[in-house]
């Protein structure tokens, strides 16, 4: 419920971090936990020289910090993301325990849930707790600073 603050401004209540519904799983060996940032509004954005937008979705092994997947497209839909995940799971075998991700749009969540069913467990990061998915957040930050935040 919104409250009135100083000078009558309407203020929204402070967002509180959620509580995970499963115990945390540590990436104590290669291919145990892979992390993906699947929220469509959290994919990295940039634009090409002609001004058209591009999106980048990344996935990494939390133990080795190896990049397992990078999709660079003008639009990243659930079908494309699942198709690329299938290719990575065939070539690299997939994570042994969990695919860690933050909660995103329902259509992407449902597609990933169907894909992960009988393959690997999913570990959702509650809203407001990006530190629980720190590796991929750090990777996206590095990608932005080193590759995308450049002028032509």
Verbal overview:
The chain is of the alpha/beta class. It is 27% helix and 25% strand. The protein has three helices and eight strands. It has helices at 78-92, 106-116, 134-148; strands at residues 3-4, 10-11, 33-36, 44-47, 53-61, 67-73, 98-102, 121-125. Strands 3, 4, 5, 6, 7 and 8 form a six-stranded mixed beta sheet that branches. It has a two-stranded antiparallel sheet with strand order 1-2. Strand 5 and strand 6 (67-73) form a beta hairpin. Helix 1 (78-92) runs parallel beside helix 2. The chain is globular and about 40 Å long. The relative contact order is 0.20. Residues 15-21 have low confidence and may be disordered.
Structural class: alpha/beta
Radius of gyration: 17 Å
Shape: globular
Pick out the low-confidence regions: 15-21
Series of secondary-structure elements, N-terminal to C-terminal: EEEEEEHEHEH
- Estimate the mean pLDDT confidence: 76
Counting DSSP H or I runs of 4 or more residues, the number of helices is 3
Q: Main beta sheet, described? A: 6 strands, mixed
Task: Tell me the β content.
Answer: 25-35%
- The total beta strand count reads 8
Helix content: 25-40%
CA distance, first residue to last residue: 46 Å
Which short descriptors sum up this protein?
alpha/beta, six-stranded mixed β-sheet, globular
Describe the structure in brief:
With 152 residues, the protein is α/β, with parallel strands linked by helices. It is 27% helix and 25% strand.
SSE blueprint and pairings:
Blueprint lengths: L2 E2 L5 E2 L21 E4 L7 E4 L5 E9 L5 E7 L4 H15 L5 E5 L3 H11 L4 E5 L8 H15 L4
Parallel strand pairs: 3-7, 7-8
Antiparallel strand pairs: 1-2, 3-5, 4-5, 5-6
Helix pairs in contact: 1-2
């Amino acid at each position: 419920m919104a409250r009135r603050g100083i000078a009558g401004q309407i203020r929204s209540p402070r967002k509180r971090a959620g509580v995970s519904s499963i115990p945390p799983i540590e990436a104590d060996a290669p291919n145990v936990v892979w992390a993906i940032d699947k929220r469509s509004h959290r994919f990295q954005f940039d634009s090409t020289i002609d001004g058209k937008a591009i999106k980048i979705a990344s996935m990494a092994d939390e133990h080795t910090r190896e990049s397992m997947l990078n999709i660079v497209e003008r639009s990243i839909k659930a079908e494309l993301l699942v198709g690329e995940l299938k290719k990575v799971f065939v070539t690299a075998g997939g994570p042994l325990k969990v695919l860690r991700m933050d909660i995103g749009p329902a259509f992407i969540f449902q597609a990933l849930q169907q894909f992960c069913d009988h393959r690997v467990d999913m570990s959702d990061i509650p809203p407001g707790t990006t530190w629980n998915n720190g590796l991929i957040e750090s990777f996206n930050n590095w990608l932005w600073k080193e590759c995308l935040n450049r002028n032509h």
